[in-house]
TrEMBL record:
Protein name in UniProt: Phosphoenolpyruvate carboxykinase (ATP)
Gene expressing this chain: pckA
Reaction equations catalysed: oxaloacetate + ATP = phosphoenolpyruvate + ADP + CO2
Binding of substrate, residues: 59, 193, 199, 321
HAMAP family, per database record: PEPCK_ATP (MF_00453)
Family: Belongs to the phosphoenolpyruvate carboxykinase (ATP) family.
Length: 534
């Protein structure tokens, strides 16, 4: 493990220099070697590095804190999502983490976020493990020139082996992600789940861009057609952002985090982080083929006796993942910038089977659904639990939004009007009944509906209005059977459908109450019809 060019980064400002073996800006090959040597992981048969992230195989939102300081105090939307952390506790914990790292090998990488140079921020990431550094290499933007002697704008320190003491350190548990805007530092400990690193910097950008730069930050994927027509796909985890943005007929901008400035959108990241559960070359060829040399596989299992990944094995977690740089995808746009979108898709995985698989929203309905951020969580992969739960996460990404959701919604509303964007609601979830009775919408149908929306295939067809939610539903769509389009027709019993639709409408109305004061009458009226409780 040699430092690239033997350059030593400036870590003086971090109080990190003493007695530590520092590996700076290692190449993916060097990081893979280091990870294997350190027993962090093994190679798969396609040359990907397969590691386990340890106790945490997903994010832990209740352990993400923001330091309450002069920058954040009056601006952050405090509560269960943005949990306050005392500045003195942050400083104390910072010293503990750096002392912990002092006698260890550490991996330092200079990288950046935001493909649009105007909004570019430099990030130095210090990781305890080689695999986390490989993740940063893949997911963040790889700068052409680095400045090891300089002090970057932001620093992330990630020490999965460090465990906090909640009684004295001010954390909830041993694991934590703490963002300090005054120190421009993110401290991560007790968790080896790499998604925490990317989503922590996403939270930072969700503060800086709208608040300081009037740029809308979005939890969405994006791609463009050959005529430069951009589409973006908002959606909560598991609704299909990564899957649906990977379209061989279109060019990939990014799969998760984007900004929308005056005339263009830009990726915050330089790579993708795709789910591997049930992955097949036939259904998701682009993701499947991206798992080549140097890609980082997380928490997967091999077919016994081989190094071939069994993508159906979810014994460690349902949230198996692969991280790879955008350059692993043949049709990626680098630098990842594209024109303002012509089409916006809101993805929802409705486990109640109520929402149509594709429908068109008015600008007011778009605002209503954006603020609502509906999806459904399936009670679990645990045996016997079949009852789905409606969840609302404002702006399809509430967990990552330091500002009040209405701040983002207002920016989006303005842009939808200015650019006359078509907004579609896509249900990638259940059809023919709720989870347990119906089945998930076929990926090939969802893809066909999106293709039709993008290519004008739904411009000249008839529409009818949903009786409860009021969005317009196309009666036909190329390459999709007509009967799939109207959810009511897919249910065995129409009365059951109506009853469940009313229940879901009530959940929408109840959830929206907390936003009513910040909203307009037009937006409130764009919600579902008020129904008598059933
Ligand atoms: P995250 O924010 O966690 O990255 P995501 O929005 O990117 O989540 P995906 O990784 O695209 O979500 O996950 C969608 C999953 O659902 C994939 O595993 C995909 O194969 C599966 N799937 C099944 N049916 C559909 C469908 N009709 N549309 C989209 N995805 C589907
Ligand atoms: Mn994704």
């Amino acid at each position: 493990m040699n430092n690239m060019n033997n350059r030593v980064p400036n870590l003086g400002y971090l109080n990190l220099a003493n007695g530590t073996a520092i590996f700076y800006q290692l190449t993916p090959a060097q990081l893979v070697e280091a990870a294997i040597k350190r027993n962090e992981g093994v190679l798969s048969d396609t040359g990907a590095l397969a590691i386990d992230t340890g106790e945490f195989t997903g994010r832990s939102p209740k352990d993400r804190f923001i330091v309450d300081d002069e920058i954040t105090h009056d601006v952050v939307w405090w509560g269960d999502i943005n949990i306050k952390f005392a500045a003195n506790k942050f400083d104390a914990l910072y010293n503990k983490v750096t002392s912990y790292l002092a006698n260890k090998e550490i991996f330092v990488r200079d990288s950046c976020a935001c493909a649009n140079e105007k909004y570019h921020i430099d990030i130095r990431v210090v990781t305890e493990t080689a695999y986390q550094n490989l993740f940063v290499h893949h997911l963040f933007i790889r700068p052409e020139v680095v400045n090891p002697e300089g002090q970057p704008e932001w620093t992330i320190i990630a020490a999965p082996g460090f465990k906090a003491n909640p009684a004295t350190d001010g954390t909830r548990q041993e694991n934590f992600v703490i963002i300090s805007f005054s120190k421009r530092t993110i401290l991560i400990g007790g968790t080896g789940y790499t998604g925490e690193i990317k989503k922590a910097i996403f939270s930072v950008l969700n503060f800086i861009l709208p608040h300081d730069k009037q740029v809308l930050s979005m939890h969405c994927s994006a791609n463009t057609g050959n005529r430069g027509d951009t589409a973006i796909f908002f959606g909560l985890s598991g609704t299909g952002k990564t899957t649906l943005s990977a379209d061989p007929e279109r060019n990939l901008i990014g799969d998760d985090e984007h900004g929308w400035s005056d005339y263009s959108i830009f990726n915050f990241e330089g790579g993708c982080y795709a789910k591997c559960c049930g992955l097949t070359a036939e259904k998701e060829p682009q993701i499947f083929n991206a798992i080549k040399y140097g890609a980082l596989l997380e928490n997967v299992n091999f077919v016994p006796g081989t190094r071939r990944v069994n993508f159906n094995n979810i014994d460690k977690t349902e949230n198996t993942r692969v991280a790879y740089p955008l350059s692993n995808v043949s049709n990626a746009v680098i630098p990842s910038i594209a024109a303002s979108p012509k089409n916006i898709f809101f993805l929802t995985a409705d486990a109640f089977g109520i929402l149509p698989p594709i429908s068109k929203l008015t600008p007011e309905q778009a605002m209503y659904h954006f603020i609502s951020g509906y999806t459904a969580k399936i009670a679990g992969t645990e045996a016997g639990i079949t009852e789905p739960k409606a969840t609302f996460s404002a702006c399809f990404g509430e967990a990552f939004l330091p500002l009040h959701p209405v701040a983002y919604a207002k920016l989006l509303g303005k842009k939808i009007k200015e650019h006359q964007v078509n907004v579609w609601l896509i249900n990638t979830g259940w059809t023919g009944g709720a989870y347990g009775t119906g089945q998930r919408m076929k990926l090939s149908y969802t893809r066909a509906m999106i293709t039709a929306a993008l290519n004008g295939g739904l411009d000249n067809v008839s529409y009818h209005q949903h009786p409860v939610f009021n969005m317009m539903i196309p009666v036909s769509c190329p390459n999709v059977p007509d009967e799939v389009l109207n959810p009511k027709n897919t249910w065995a019993n129409a009365e059951n459908y109506e009853c469940s639709a009313n229940k879901l409408a009530n959940a929408f109305v109840k959830n929206f109450e907390k936003y009513a004061a910040y909203s307009t009458v037009e937006i409130i009226n764009a919600g579902p019809n008020t129904v008598v409780a059933v």
